[in-house]
UniProtKB/TrEMBL annotation:
It comes from Drosophila pseudoobscura pseudoobscura (Fruit fly). Keywords: WD repeat. This is U3 small nucleolar RNA-associated protein 4 homolog. GO terms for cellular component: 90S preribosome; small-subunit processome; t-UTP complex. Pfam families: WD40 (PF00400). One of its GO terms (biological process) is maturation of SSU-rRNA from tricistronic rRNA transcript (SSU-rRNA, 5.8S rRNA, LSU-rRNA). WD repeats lie at residues 503-530. InterPro entries: Quinoprotein_ADH-like_sf, UTP4, WD40/YVTN_repeat-like_dom_sf, WD40_repeat_dom_sf, WD40_rpt.
């Protein structure tokens, strides 16, 4: 636990923070990436059945998730325009996805066997796929369709990678032992380049505008070829084995490669070499990044940044330039949406995993002592001092609910009174009654539940004994009353009239009077909830250029607090229809690399805002303080420094950063009471514990 000594709201101000470090998700390996420069969207596929869409315009954040049918891992991704995303998987399916509605548009099975590679030409008219049996198909993607166009002469062995040249007239493929140049029009090989050994696999390819081919292979070499005459220009060993990924910057003067042993990211710079009267260009090692402990499977360049991912499932962003701080950010493979909910009075914590739910009882405090799973610290602002306190009782795992292996839990929640647990998979909803002493879970039969209880992407319980479910297919919120022996459907609210895109955030005010929803097209809508079910749309906040990353409502005040991906925090009065507090971009410097994931408000002091990113918990204070029944503003206070006074004078309606507490992969923060918080986090060592030991290499000066 941690105690925070802030501006004393009630004359004390110690805040106990439960550090719940028993959330142990397993890494989900990143398999492929495709970056869309126009929409600034990074699509990545994992070994699990999903495609993630990350917004990279400001601080990176997981914007949308496309859930795939069970057992269809995606091997390759490609973009055509800003709205057409294609995937090729090992079940042999080529699929185009609707990235707005997050569902399938078209499906083809070009060869009937596993598809290993895919690429789209520069004109975005043709798509090539390579298969397990050596078939290469050309598909037309014009007129917003996918149609068969031609098939190449069959080659021996699987087509592991393929790339069009800039003209689109030639296709370069890599397989076991060979790199081939094909005529797209005629479907036969023009040149075949042989590697050093026939058992060497070509894992990745890049084709430059000057018709230079760069290939990475399983022997750890990067080979450069002249595509005009199929001659080898250069060959360098960059890894001990398996160069899995290559990436180029826009100017094509920086080449990034990575792979298995060692899992380093190595950057090469195109350099002119002069020898006597001749001049040539060579790829010279520029720098390297030691950002991963396990192999890297995919790379992307977003100038000047390198985006990488692999077995550990951590999306890593580093710089391709020489700097004192090369590593910018590492984003753990968390699930989208809320993964934790808490019952305040009972001090129960529900944690969501892909295929199970865990219910924990939080520990209780005694004296000073460290605990592995939970501890208590105390810090004084602004120095940041911390100290540990003792737990009289350690946290206890009470139960685990499992679903079928192929079912994915997309949302779950625990009611505030710890009487109900509700979770939703992609196909159905389960509602269970929870009883204490002894602890029992009684699942309500489906025939006893209202038919409006449909699969939901967001599940909310209110203090007014209501259950809210958001149906993502139609953007409709269904309201249910929870009684001792039955569940009653009360009303529904159609969000689709005001929010056309999928909903990313959904919150209800503590008094149950307002509902706020944010969509993926940067809109935020507010509705006033009526007991009779005649809910009324109140207002849409002005659209901001950056996406919404967190929402929160004040208790006892009709004020909404919003965090955006560009680091801005705003407070909006729903009655006055006006902004009452707002910050500049990146008031918190760390939000350039990590977005604000959560906002925690003090019910007795509206001047204090706690926000958290994946790596820090921050305390901010309103510059222009508000007086409440519990908090009296002392306008003659002399505790402000001259710097603070200047900041307040320059931006009276803004906020200022008071202190920060470092965390590691912070998932969620809750308020249990005015002086008690809970944060759920996971350490990198625990995240990677289930993986094989990382690659060990000798370092200079070490035996």
């Amino acid at each position: 636990m941690t105690a925070i000594l802030n501006e004393p709201p009630q004359g004390g101000g110690k805040q106990q923070l439960h550090n719940a470090r028993f959330y142990t998700i397993k890494p989900r390996a990143i398999v492929g990436m495709a970056y869309n420069k126009l929409s600034k969207c990074l699509a990545l596929s994992r070994e699990t059945d999903c495609i993630e869409l990350w917004n990279m315009e400001y601080a990176p954040y997981l914007d949308r998730v496309i859930h795939l049918p069970p057992g269809s891992p995606v091997e390759a991704l490609a973009w055509a325009g800003t709205k057409r995303l294609f995937s090729a998987d090992l079940t042999g399916k080529l699929i185009e996805w609707d990235v707005l509605r997050l569902r399938q548009r078209y499906e083809q099975s070009p060869t009937g066997n596993a598809l290993w590679s895919m690429d789209i030409n520069g004109q975005e008219t043709e798509l090539a796929v390579g298969s397990e049996e050596g078939h290469i198909n050309i598909m037309s993607i014009e007129n917003d369709e996918i149609t068969y166009k031609s098939i190449f002469n069959k080659q021996k062995g699987r087509v592991l990678c393929c790339k069009f040249d800039k003209s689109g007239k030639h296709l370069i493929t890599g397989s076991e032992g060979y790199v081939r140049i094909w005529s797209v029009l005629k479907g036969h090989t023009l040149h075949t380049m042989t590697l050093s050994a026939k058992d060497v696999n070509v894992w990745c390819l890049r084709v430059l505008a000057d018709n230079t081919i760069v290939a990475g292979d399983s022997a750890g070499f990067v080979t450069v070829w002249n595509a005009e005459n199929a001659t080898q220009i250069d060959r360098q060993r960059v890894l001990d084995k398996n160069v899995f990924a290559l990436a180029l910057n826009e100017e094509e003067d920086r080449l990034v490669c990575s792979g298995m042993e060692p899992p380093l990211i190595r950057v090469f710079s195109k350099t002119k070499i002069r020898r006597e009267e001749s001049e040539s260009e060579r790829w010279i090692k520029f720098l390297q990044r030691d950002a991963h402990k396990h192999y890297v499977k995919s790379l992307a360049m977003i100038d000047p940044l390198i985006v990488s991912g692999g077995l550990d499932g951590i999306l890593t962003i580093t710089s391709s330039e020489r700097s004192s701080l090369p590593q910018l950010s590492q984003h753990a493979p968390f699930l989208q949406g809320s993964v934790a909910s808490v019952a305040i009075d009972a001090k129960l914590l529900l944690l969501r995993y892909p295929h199970s739910l865990d219910l924990w009882r939080l520990g209780t405090v005694a004296a000073r002592q460290e605990e592995d799973d939970e501890d208590e610290e105390r810090w004084d602002l602004p120095v940041g001092h911390t100290e540990d306190l003792v737990l009289a009782k350690p946290p206890q795992k009470l139960l685990q609910l499992n679903v079928r292996e192929k079912s994915f839990i997309q949302a779950a929640a625990l009611s505030p009174d710890a009487a109900w647990i509700c979770y939703s998979t992609l196909t159905d909803v389960r509602l269970s009654r929870l009883t204490q002493a002894p602890l029992q879970v009684e699942r309500r039969p489906a025939e006893d539940l209202p038919q409006e209880l449909t699969p939901a992407s967001h599940i909310l319980f209110t203090k007014q004994q209501q259950l809210l479910l958001l149906d993502p297919k139609v953007n409709r919120v269904n309201f249910f009353d929870l009684e001792e022996d039955r569940v009653l459907f009360r009303s529904s609210l159609d969000l689709g009239a005001h929010l056309k895109r999928s909903v990313s955030h959904l919150v209800v005010s503590p008094d149950g009077e307002y509902l706020v929803a944010a969509s993926t097209d940067h809109l935020i809508g507010v509705w006033r909830l009526q007991p009779a079910g005649k809910h009324k749309h109140l207002v849409n906040l002005p659209r901001h250029r950056a996406g919404t990353t967190a929402l929160a409502m004040h208790e006892g005040r009709p004020r909404l607090v919003v965090a955006y991906a560009d680091g801005r925090l705003v407070e909006y009065d729903l009655v006055k229809r006006a902004f009452t507090c707002e910050t500049v971009e990146y008031l918190i410097p760390g939000t350039r690399h990590f977005c604000i994931r959560g906002i925690i408000l003090d019910p007795k002091n509206p001047n204090i805002f706690l926000v958290h990113t994946e790596e820090y918990l921050y305390v901010l204070e309103r510059n222009k303080r508000l007086a409440t029944e519990d908090y009296v503003v002392n306008t003659k206070s002399k505790k402000y420094s001259q710097e603070s006074r200047s900041l307040i004078a320059a931006n009276p309606n803004g906020m200022r950063l008071k202190t920060q507490l470092p965390r590691q992969h912070l998932v969620h923060v809750f308020r249990l009471s005015p002086n008690e918080l809970v944060n759920v986090s996971i350490s990198t060592s625990n995240l990677l514990a289930s993986l094989p030991p990382p690659f060990q290499r000798k370092r200079f000066g070490a035996s």
